[in-house]
Design brief:
The complex is a heterodimer of chains A (435) and B (445). In chain A, helix 3 crosses helix 4. Chain A is built from eight helices and 26 strands. Chain A starts with 7 loop residues before the first helix and ends with a strand. Chain A has 435 residues and is of the alpha+beta class. In chain A, strands 9, 10, 11, 14, 22, 23 and 24 form a seven-stranded mixed beta sheet that branches. A six-stranded antiparallel beta sheet of chain A has the order 3-2-1-4-5-6. Chain A has a six-stranded mixed beta sheet with strand order 19-18-15-8-25-21. Chain A has two domains: 8-196, PmbA/TldD fold, CATH 3.30.2290.10; 205-434, no CATH class. The chains are: A alpha+beta (435), B alpha+beta (445). Strand 3 (64-71) of chain A pairs parallel with strand 2 (40-56) of chain B.
Chain lengths: 435, 445
């Protein structure tokens, strides 16, 4: 069901009719999406398969944009979208390229999702625990191609998996690049950790050393660095480019690099057809290149585009991160060493940034006290809150081992986007964690 | 090709896979949206069309959706071994659609004019105030459904939504407002500007309440949010075991003044339709009558007791979505004889809470709720001081028992389905300046 039958040159010629000004940008976004879902045992109907395809055409002129999106890939749909963006009824119909709709075909079988719940349950049993679990697993495949009036990217495919687990003590989920034995082991271990923490008492108020495991550090950096440095967030309180050069942390290197994401979700262009870049968000704690889409990059004059993402054809592009990295410490380091009475937060359920106040909240399902430099007793759900600058300023140590961790859905602005990270653990001092 | 003919072909294929019951659903929709964000304006138009097939029998089932119509001979995903039943035709009820479905969708200029009008009005209300983010969306859709048990129905929907975020000098953060109407013409620029202006002034001048317990008048916006948190006591088969712990000895879930209804065909309701997402006739279901708990809102397959009546309450927001039971228009019935002004005048010492300021929580397990709110302190029937950053809190499960009076200003909000309430005079709840902690056991220190 690959995206085929699109002739970039023919599409670009059509778009040329829209982009009449020297500074106009017109693009056509084509996509095919397939999702196969295995719901939890108790839900009916069983296997769920969703196929969709469609296109969107957008014209960008100064600070204004016009967009039209349609379901289905057809010459008529393309011409209609073009007409709606042009906002005129032409005397003669716009010539439109031939587009090949996908032939009706079944989803490629996804045996891996059929076997995954059993594999996770096996891992749980190996830890000698048992509990009622409702597990939903999905495989996501998205083909997309963006053709501009001047620039045409090739078709790209993303394949990944998501899971959602419901237990008597809460729900959680995440994204997986593969659905193999290692993924089953990781999800199983995560569920067991939640189970063993289900009745743990709260931490009360803690203000000593706090170590964030890679999964929790990924959420922190997504919320407190990436969202804070998206141009639509920055534009709410000033000019986005004025953030460049501001020190946010003592010494922290944070990058967004879609080209080094897990192989099946790696990207060469963004959803505006612009080549992606290895973007230094923070270099040694200083803001270097905020996340910009085409519109904000043009307005600023100094920001680099390439971070425009869209949840689908019916949504406009927005500046978002794809694959975040924190550069690890070059020397081997044990962040727990010599800590007595600290707190280890292995994972986070969610984070939230208030762009107006700069306040940040990280919620964790459980944590562990650190005794004698080792993880000890579990404590119940807790949260870490404060101003972004204070939290980033409290980072005093970066781990030396990076992990692919904390992948999940970003829902900012109502667009659901998969986000990935490869980060080490972080050590913070002087932040307050409370139940 | 008609939906019925298409179903015949598809059903033949799926019968061969052991699935005798087959449903075919099609939805077409179009919408226009105008958006302001960070000084940039985007006008967009969507045209959507999708199909869904749900099929099953005693031993297997599947759900497949696509933007291309299903055809006989097309390959199908391997069905899974879970049973599925579909509704039969039932008895159709008479239906006449409300007016307003045929109005053309809003044009780009009209939408932009509305947002500009709100911005101008806002500046008049609070000098220097401006919209920082806003969008207006106007949409219409047509749905059709057929199944092999004789269900055959078609219906239309039409609604518009307005989202506004504003800020002003000397006001920390932003204030937001979400409104829904049948079409864009249902929004009034000055009315929206005044409401945003009120919120900005409350945020600027309001003080958090001292810890206090007094008579409290909840506006529809606040009361509906609490009602949304109580939905697990009112909706679905799970309510059968959740609700009894909150009933008094007479089987009451609320005070005499409280009647809670769900009505999928509410006259003038934005989601009013002759049938639900499975093609089952919608109807009015009384869930709580004069305080007495009657039954939860149940879909046809959830009914167990002879006293329970099912309702067409299966939602299907889009063609991609699996039909799921939930509220349609769930509301607390207003008292047409009671004006809000009379309730305010009757308050000796208390509060009038106008809006919810952020995210709160309702914990039915712990029987507690907390909501960040703003409004006014009231003394001897008059507003005496603005209030902001206060937290309304108290017992959740017995909330409806503490309703003293119900006004006539029923208003709906897009929460989980459309939830509505008139203003409610309540007692036995507290206000706090700080967010109350959710009940979590804390380690001894």
């Amino acid at each position: 069901m690959a995206l085929s039958g699109i002739e970039p040159a023919a599409v670009a010629r059509c778009l040329g009719q829209l982009a009449t000004g020297a500074a106009d940008h017109a693009e056509a976004y084509f996509e095919r999406v397939e999702e196969v879902e295995l719901p939890s045992d108790e839900e009916s109907p069983g296997v769920r398969a969703r196929h969709e395809e469609g296109l969107a055409i957008r014209l960008l002129r100064g600070s204004e944009a016009w967009m039209a999106s349609v379901d289905g890939l057809s010459r008529e749909g393309f011409a209609e979208a073009l007409r709606r963006v042009a906002r005129v009824q032409p005397r003669a119909g716009y010539p439109a390229p031939e587009l090949t709709p996908s032939s009706a075909e079944a989803s490629e079988p996804a045996p891996e999702i059929l076997h995954f719940p059993a594999a996770v349950r096996r891992v749980i049993r190996e830890h000698h625990v048992a509990f009622r679990l409702r597990l939903t697993v999905r495989r996501h495949r998205r083909w997309r191609q963006v053709v501009g009036s001047r620039l045409a990217g090739g078709a790209e495919l993303e394949v990944y998996y998501s899971f959602a687990a419901r237990t008597a003590w809460g729900s959680f989920g995440g994204l997986l690049a593969a659905l193999d034995a290692a993924a089953a082991a990781a999800v199983g271990r995560q569920l067991v950790a939640h189970f063993r923490s289900r009745d743990a008492v709260g931490v009360g108020r803690h203000a000593g050393v706090t170590v964030l495991g890679p999964a929790a550090a990924a959420v922190l950096v997504h919320e407190a660095v990436a969202h804070a440095l998206e141009t639509d967030t920055l534009a709410r309180t000033g000019r986005p480019e004025s953030a460049v050069g501001v020190r946010l942390a003592a010494s922290l290197d944070v990058l967004d690099d879609p080209t080094t994401a897990p192989e099946t979700v790696r990207r060469l262009t963004d959803d505006e057809g612009v080549p992606v870049v290895r973007r230094w968000l923070l270099r040694e704690g200083v803001v270097e290149q905020p996340l910009a889409d085409l519109r904000s990059a043009r307005e600023s004059g100094i920001l680099a585009p390439g971070a425009g993402r869209r949840a689908g054809r019916h949504h406009g592009p927005v500046p978002r991160s794809t694959h975040l990295e924190i550069l690890p410490s070059p020397e081997p380091v044990d962040l727990l060493a010599d800590v007595e009475g600290g707190l280890l937060i292995p994972e986070a359920t969610r984070g939230r940034l208030d762009p107006w106040t700069g306040r940040f909240l990280l919620e964790a399902p459980y944590a562990r006290r650190i005794v004698g430099g080792l993880p000890a007793d579990r404590v119940g759900p807790c949260r870490l809150a404060g101003r972004v600058s204070d939290l980033l300023g409290a980072i005093v140590g970066v781990g030396s081992e990076v992990e692919v961790a904390g992948a999940g859905w970003c829902a900012k602005g109502g667009q659901l986007l998969p986000v990935w990270a490869r980060v080490p653990a972080l050590r913070l001092e002087g932040v307050e964690v409370e139940s | 090709m008609s939906l019925g003919k298409r179903l015949a072909g598809v059903a033949k294929d799926l019968a061969g896979l052991g699935m005798e019951q087959v449903e075919l659903y099609r939805k077409r929709g179009r919408s226009r949206r105008c958006e302001l964000e960070g000084g940039a304006r985007t006008a967009s138009q969507r045209a959507e069309e999708g199909w869904a097939v749900r099929a099953g029998g005693d031993r297997s089932s599947l759900f497949a959706t696509s933007t291309t119509p299903p055809t006989s001979g097309a390959p199908w995903p391997e069905p899974d071994g879970r049973p599925l039943r579909l509704p039969d035709r039932g008895r159709p009820s008479a239906w006449s659609a409300s007016a307003g479905f045929d109005e053309p969708l809003t044009g780009e200029k009209e939408a932009a004019a509305l947002l500009d009008g709100i911005e101008r009005g806002l500046d008049r209300e609070v000098p220097g105030a401006r919209l920082v983010s806003a969008w207006v969306e106007d949409g219409a859709s047509e749905s059709e459904i057929v199944n092999t048990l004789g269900v055959e129905a078609a219906w239309r929907a039409r609604s518009a939504a307005l989202h506004l975020e504003a800020r002003a000098p000397e006001v920390g953060g932003v204030v937001g407002l979400d409104l829904v109407a049948r079409s864009l013409r249902g929004f009034e620029a000055m009315g929206a500007a005044r409401r945003l202006g009120d919120l900005l002034v409350l945020r600027r001048d309001g003080r958090p309440a001292e810890r206090d317990r007094a008579e409290i008048l909840l506006s529809p916006a606040v009361a509906s949010r609490v009602l949304a948190g109580l939905a697990p006591l009112l909706v679905g088969a799970g309510a059968r075991h959740r609700t009894p712990r909150f009933l008094d000895r007479q089987g009451r879930l609320g005070a005499e003044a409280v009647t809670v209804v769900d009505d999928g065909r509410l006259r003038g309701g934005l989601q009013a339709a002759p049938v639900d997402g499975e093609g089952v006739s919608t109807r009015e279901t009384v869930l709580v009558e004069a305080g007495r708990w009657r039954q939860p809102l149940l879909a046809w397959w959830e009914v167990r007791e002879p006293s329970e009546r099912p309702s067409g309450c299966v939602g299907r927001p889009g063609w991609r979505d699996v039909p799921t039971p939930g509220p349609t228009h769930l509301y607390l019935r207003p008292d047409p004889s009671v004006r809000v002004a009379d309730l305010v005048r009757g308050i000796g010492r208390g509060y009038y809470l106008l809006e919810v300021e952020g995210v709160g929580w309702v914990d039915l397990e712990a029987d507690r709720f907390a909501l960040p709110v703003c409004g006014f302190e009231v003394r001897d029937g008059g507003a005496t001081a603005p209030l902001s950053g206060a937290w309304l809190h108290g017992p959740a499960g017995t909330f409806l028992h503490r309703v003293r009076a119900v006004a006539r200003d029923l208003t709906f909000f897009p929460l989980a389905g459309l939830l509505g309430s008139p203003s409610l005079l309540v007692s036995g709840f507290g206000l706090e300046p700080e967010p109350p902690r959710r009940p979590v056991p804390v380690a001894p220190t």
